Amino acid sequence: MVKKYNPTSPGRRDASVIEYKKYLTSTQSKPHKALTKGKKATGGRNSAGRITNWYRGAGNKRKYRDIDFKFDKKDIPAKIETIEYDPYRSGFIALVLYADGARRYILVPQEMKEGDTFIVSETAKPRKGNRLPLAKIPVGTFVYAVEMKPNGGARIARAAGIAAEVVAHDAGYTTLKMPSTEIRKVLSSCWATVGTVSNEEHRLVSIGKAGRARHMGLRPKTRGTARNAVDHPHGGGEGRAPRGHKRSRTKQGRPTGKGQKTRSPKKYSNKFIVSRRKPGPLMGGKR
């Protein structure tokens, strides 16, 4: 459930939050210490110190939970001990106890709760929470945490409320309809978890005020047209000048937005894409 407050201030008027106590085992519990570590904030900078992901920085200090995306404990039943919040991802996580005594954090699917069980196995039934190869999953099933390469770990469909749909099986490949509406092929020997990622209301939350965004590590975004010509292709000019060229561009000069195709025509994985995604509101974004 998304909770709204009385409009006691302009920030409160538009803000909303997830009612975590309705979903989590306890909002006061601390994470399992053996599966946590510190993580240095990069501020969007790469190893050379250059900003590659803009408008990141500061924010509250966060503890990193080591999530198991490899799922290498196969054929061992596991039981969910707690459902927890993870500051580094939008979906909820679960601390699970395997029958051999090992504990791991996993990305938990919707409607699974404390005490539920699952198994990672080639012979597992395709029911919610179980993980098995795509070849064993029936057409029409929704899956998440999908591998792109066998034993490469979960890569596809990991955000809150997200799932990919199994559309077809053919010649060693499974066709998936992605959350972006793209339809692509993945090797049928890749593994996936049955279900949909938890916390589907995440997309309905309104941050409400700038200060809350800064606590999340999000910095203000500057429009390209408001910059100098040396700083952005849209910058410069007297007053409010037009951008001066047909296609909108990024700071680096590459085309962006407005339904323009930006994918490299020679990208190695183009052959796996059956149908390109539909840009804009059809993808589920804001109009």
The pLDDT mean sits at: 89
Shape descriptor: globular
CATH architecture: Beta Barrel
Along the chain, the helix and strand elements come as: EHEEEEEEEEEEEEEEEHE
**Helical proportion?**
under 10%
State the end-to-end CA separation.
23 Å
- Given as residue ranges, the uncertain stretches (5+ residues, pLDDT < 50) are 282-287
Structural class: mainly beta
Any overview of this molecule?
By secondary structure, the chain is mainly beta. The protein has a single domain (2-202), classed as OB fold (Dihydrolipoamide Acetyltransferase, E2P) (Beta Barrel). Helices cover 4% and strands 23% of the residues. The chain has 2 helices and 17 strands. The strands form 5 sheets. It has a 7-stranded antiparallel beta sheet with strand order 9-16-10-13-14-15-17, with no helix packed on it. Strands 7-6-5-8 form a 4-stranded antiparallel beta sheet, with no helix packed on it. A two-stranded antiparallel sheet has the order 1-2. The radius of gyration is 22 Å and the shape is globular.
